[in-house]
């Protein structure tokens, strides 16, 4: 972008530019930057409730010795490592199938698969909790189909509870990501696929060699967004486990731990602020690595 | 011959996968509607047939919940938040894209970094701010922190890349001021962008949970999402009533989606160009 | 526009002033007391009843009883106190006994001391103890969570047990009976939510111990009652005489649907048990089973809560007077809430009332209230401390390890490590 930075044109550009962006910057400054700086200041304090005093790096030291924090961190990373790839791959496959104009009823399929996105996080968590109840519809269906002989302890076994959370998030967000890929795919000239097909390139190779490279910017974008979402996971776990992150902290996430430190346990706002900064740092690192990985492969 | 079988198999696989995914996606909705017609115990026991408790559940819902007020609260918050977010974000998206400068470019990148801030880190300071401003238990306090959204600004900026510069040039020749160009040319041209953003922001605002949970203190200000959560976490939750609540809470977002589906997909197209 | 504004501004200002002074006058005349609590069939309904009684004699005071989910009440109270903004808080709030010390100690000055007004000698001592900090007593004791063993007479009879057989049980005997019940009737003995350490707390307190000792120090590894409680829960799990429940409502569903033969919990569950009219006459109530260690009793407590007045409340004086008049003195009120809601209050004098003497047809004519009242007097007093939530989370986290056969001493060590890291 070339433009004059001096003289009246430059100033004209500047004044108008600032006027257009000022409202948002003001709001973000007031309601995000100011509180997050305040939060940083709090993270160097410790104490009970309102009786806080300066504690230096004591909170950071405490992180290392806190098994619950380690557990919440591991859980959050597990969700991220397992759930995000499953969802992205599933969304990509569905998008590339639905991009084919010869599919009968593709509008219907697209709408159906996107539908979960209209539910609120609270509503679908409540729904899933009912569906995955010990005698609920999922277990009884699986039993009828002969898949299982005794009910799966979805909400009461540490492993299955994690699986349930992953199923729930995948249900809610796959369609959302799929729409992004579909939109991007429609910008790709279909004749590329036709040529490849005529040349005898099999469907799987067309997917890995044409679709994925062309969609890379969108995949990157959705991956970063999903990473941020997963690391901040709260509503689902809160409503599925009655705010506890159980059983035995198996579903506890960092955000839920922060919530517990603030509202359920003896309130220690300083330590809670420190844990919240762990999320900030993690998101920053992961986003950086994802951009870095995408750029490396470009070379 | 083998080719024919292969093709049939791949069609079976394709439609099998699509059908399964579509079924899994839609089933919870079906179950929710069926649930609204069943008693609490039947729901927990996994009954998937229509029951006879619809009118009982609906009656109970409307006696336990001041539904008109609750829905009015949700609608007011969602519409106010959406309109304001769209207004300031489209201004900014347009501003960042059209009037590029080195400083603003830096600020833009810094702004995108705010996407990483978890809400959990903001809630206590925000709550104290709202308390000092005397805004606790008001809908303004719910809406204010949600307006400035880096994500929506990003979206509008991406879409603005498709805004034809000839239109701007022509308008300038006609002597229109910058705000007039924005209001009378950009806004109408970018209709579908606005429509898509509307859907996303409206749904986020309608479904917002944690922040309203903290700020709204009385039953008179509660939103439908809060009501569902407290119905479900009540001492003795009646799942039939909860199901009626979730159906009613999902209807508006479902309606918005179906009425604006076309604009939505068009808008999405713009965002990833 | 300017002219218009100039012409109307004084008038608008006048109107605004007039309405402000009008509001001020009404505020002085009619005082509204806002109250937060959580159970619509229990404490909300009871508070409405209490408010109605007070308004009869004090027509200038009205009540706004707000019904939130319990977690919402706790979360809103904690945010409100943390932000230091009084206008976000109610005048009176209900706090569960386990959390009382946490609030009183973390937010000094936030709650109004009632020591001078209320005669605390008339209340159950353990209730008063949880609301005392540095000799000052805050709050008005409300319901008791005295525990009982609710059992289905019909299922137990099928398995060959009479009500007499249920009276003086040990936990080991309870498990044996459970195995026979399952053999004969196919029903599980009890519902158990592996995410809820409530049963551990009941058993532990029945032997006079808690996660913390009298000085508030962690009491986990050397706590015989906690060890025995964990062993008992472990035995129940390995004997597989329980129906797993996912969360509170699922747990309630285990007995309202008739899937289990017994319920061990606080007296406040009575209303829910009685809410199933088709089960009338089928239930009996016995004291809870006993541990086989020193200091073991058949009385314990689960939950229970009390009312607290916020120091910042504009209606503080009225709120205190209201609590003292109704909850501190009105014997008749306690009879009413017992009959209507199954609330066993902690005002000792209320137990002489007629309602406590009555036989309950739902429980086949047993004098259940008299029984609960007797057991209440025997509940061992413990110090809940300020970290019960943290300790409870740690216990819950280790319950699965227990069922997988980890030795109880190792489980205790793991709990101790987690609690120690949490309470800094």
Overall description:
Helix content of chain A is 72%, strand content 3%. Chain A is an all-alpha fold. Chain A is built from 13 helices and 2 strands; from the N terminus they run H-E-E-H-H-H-H-H-H-H-H-H-H-H-H. A two-stranded antiparallel sheet of chain A has the order 1-2. In chain A, helix 2 crosses helix 13, helix 3 runs antiparallel to helix 10 and helix 12 (254-264) runs antiparallel to helix 13 (269-298). With 273 residues, chain B is an all-alpha fold. Chain B has one domain (63-271): MetI-like (MetI-like fold, Orthogonal Bundle), CATH 1.10.3720. Chain B contains 15 helices and no strands. Chain B is globular and about 70 Å long. By secondary structure, chain C is α/β, with parallel strands linked by helices. Chain C has 2 domains: 2-144 and 303-361, D-Maltodextrin-Binding Protein, domain 2 (3-Layer(aba) Sandwich), CATH 3.40.190.10; 147-300 and 387-422, D-Maltodextrin-Binding Protein, domain 2 (3-Layer(aba) Sandwich), CATH 3.40.190. Chain C has helices spanning 2-29, 43-57, 70-83, 97-106, 125-129, 153-158, 171-185, 198-206, 224-238, 248-256, 270-274, 316-326, 331-341, 354-357, 368-377, 388-403, 408-422; strands at 31-37, 61-67, 92-96, 132-133, 136-137, 140-141, 147-152, 188-192, 242-244, 260-266, 283-286, 305-309. In chain C, the strands form 3 sheets. In chain C, strands 2-1-3-12-6 form a 5-stranded mixed sheet. In chain C, strands 9-8-10-7-11 form a 5-stranded mixed sheet. Chain C has a two-stranded antiparallel sheet with strand order 4-5. In chain C, helix 16 packs antiparallel against helix 17. The relative contact order of chain C is 0.16. Chains A and B meet through helix 1, helix 3, helix 4, helix 5 and helix 6 of A and helix 1, helix 4, helix 5, helix 6 and helix 7 of B.
List the helices and strands and how they pair.
The complex is a heterotrimer of chains A (299), B (273) and C (424).
Chain A lengths: L6 H36 L2 E4 L2 E4 L3 H7 L2 H32 L7 H9 L6 H11 L5 H8 L13 H28 L4 H9 L4 H12 L1 H16 L3 H6 L13 H11 L4 H30 L1
Antiparallel strand pairs in A: 1-2
Chain B lengths: L1 H34 L4 H5 L9 H11 L2 H32 L3 H12 L9 H10 L6 H9 L2 H11 L4 H9 L4 H12 L1 H17 L2 H6 L8 H9 L6 H21 L1 H11 L2
Helix pairs in contact in B: 1-14, 3-14, 4-7, 4-8, 4-11, 8-11, 9-10, 11-15, 13-14
Chain C lengths: L1 H28 L1 E7 L5 H15 L3 E7 L2 H14 L8 E5 H10 L18 H5 L2 E2 L2 E2 L2 E2 L5 E6 H6 L12 H15 L2 E5 L5 H9 L17 H15 L3 E3 L3 H9 L3 E7 L3 H5 L8 E4 L18 E5 L6 H11 L4 H11 L12 H4 L10 H10 L10 H16 L4 H15 L2
Parallel strand pairs in C: 1-2, 1-3, 8-9, 8-10
Antiparallel strand pairs in C: 3-12, 4-5, 6-12, 7-10, 7-11
